[in-house]
Amino acid sequence: MGENLLEVQDLKLYFKVKAGKVRAVDGVSFTIKPGEKLGVVGESGCGKSVTALSIMRLIPQPPGEYAGGSVLFEDQDLLDVPESAMRKIRGGQIGMIFQDPMTCLNPTMTVGKQIGEGLRIHLKLSGDQALKRAIALLEQVGIPDAATRVNSYPHQFSGGMRQRVMIAIALACNPKLLIADEPTTALDVTVQAQILELINGVCSEFGTAVMLITHDLGVVAGMTDRVVVMYAGKVVETAPTGELFANPRHPYTLGLLASVPRLDEKRHSELRTIEGAPPDLLSPPPGCPFMPRCAFARAICRTMPPLELVAGNSSHLKACWVNVTDPNEQAYADRRRKARLEATQVAISTSADVTLQQTS
Amino acid sequence: MDISERLNVPSTGEEIEPFLEVTPQLVQQRRSQGRIIFDRFIRNRAAIVGAIFLILLFLFCFVGPLVTTHNQPDQIHVTDVAQTLAGPSWQFPFGTDDTGRDMMARAMAGGQVSLLIALISMFMAVIVGVSIGAFAGFYGGIIDTLLMRFTDVILSVPLYLLLFVLSASFTDGSPKSVILLISFFGWQYAARLVRGEFLSLREREYVLAARTIGAKGFRIMFRHILPNAAGPIIVNATLLIGVNIILESVMSYFGFGIKPPNSSWGTLVSDGQGFFDVDPLLLMVPALLIFFTVLSVNLVGDGLRDALDPYMTER
Question: What domains are there in chain B, each with its CATH number?
Fold first, then answer.
């Protein structure tokens, strides 16, 4: 499989806690081709960030623990290489951007030193050369007057500019893969667009592959080639971006897409949500993790469905027993939703009665 | 179409006013971190008084012997027994001691020894303490346990007792041996402090970010974490100078520290004690010097603590 830059196979990372094992990443598989832009979406706590950090082997062990699987980066299993080789890959081959640029820059070092640090570690540049390259990189990420700003400290920069600096640090050694862990979450909307534009532009220019972790479907739609949808530490669906938005096949993806507010919706209508909360990863349900919240759920969902190709499409995979496009299944789902709604209403009215009786 | 045409601005060839945000001058007007700390320190009167006293004291002890005639502490100036223990005069501002030696010269020479011992043993203690604390806090686990229990063991020994026992058997009364001994008992608090700082700072996101660019443990410890822990370390080091001066004086006073032919403020106090009835100046001069030095060091330390505290709000 030489065509893939990164190939994550059945990766399992558990956190050992007193009460047992938290299955933060539970059998995740996906691939990234050179230069490809992959989006990873899912709600909070579904294992997106842990997946990214476990690829970099930056989860502290203990409490983290690799329970199986492999991370092939250029046909080399990153879970097997010694720590010294891993350090060469971090920053040199794989760069990473974090969510909050306010806390990710060292307040006691100038930005130039921080950008140059990777260059000095990996390319063994001298201080002068590193500084020159840092100025060039700052210009490339769109910071005006880079030659003066290179000697500034992070506190003299705004949030958007700091994220630009982070991008410059991550791309300093021209890595083959950039992992961006929610790079725009801490920024305001106008800056978000600029930063995404920048990541997109710079990575296209350098031919860097991108793994973009986000919970913002708009970001995914605008920027990625392919999307992986994660839920409770598992991949539930993966498809080319256009295909996923046009033809979602997993009930969870359907729910995610339906809960995006739309401009053409009637004003003051209730926003749609996915009912319930994600399962406790300490003791996930035995079958499909989405089953407790899924309208399409059936008895068969008590066993975990495999991640399989959707019929008639060679690049669209889903992990679901149900064919959500089947009208019969949709009718069944509607019936279940209605029954649930009625049940909640009954529960609310009886509890109101009980409280009334108690107070009187 | 040009933007200026669209906005109907007549293009008169007038010089364009540059946008203010992007000019570097505006950014440079902000005070640097060091400047902010310095300004805060300056505003603390007590700390400034302490700092000025310390500067004058250093000039007195180290430059004084070079520019004045009080540079022969061991020379017996007054041979007439009746004239020894003289009071202050123009020739001997601090008087003379029981053997007719110049007290001013002796105070300067003793100050050199006392201050050097305090400073050097402070540096050694801080270096040892920072290294031990950094390793313990950064690596944690078994390394942390071993290093910190070792620290606790040394801390649990009665300080003066062991100091006297050790100095009686190991030191030869030279400043070097006293420095070694004092620094051996000074690093524990620095180690604990640095360990605590490292424990909290290693969880910061910029440390994780440094890992993602492939930085090694040493680089992260000393380039990324240590500068962020500098404030508390500096304060601790300053206060340690005062502690060391007192330790040295106590040791020398009891005859365990500096021994003749060397002299320090501690030995001067010890020597002058016997003549308190006849000439209190012999005791008061070194004792007051010790007192004001330690007081000033502590004032400066407190001032630095406030100046380096990032949560201090400026009024």
Answer: 33-69+100-307 (1.10.3720.10)
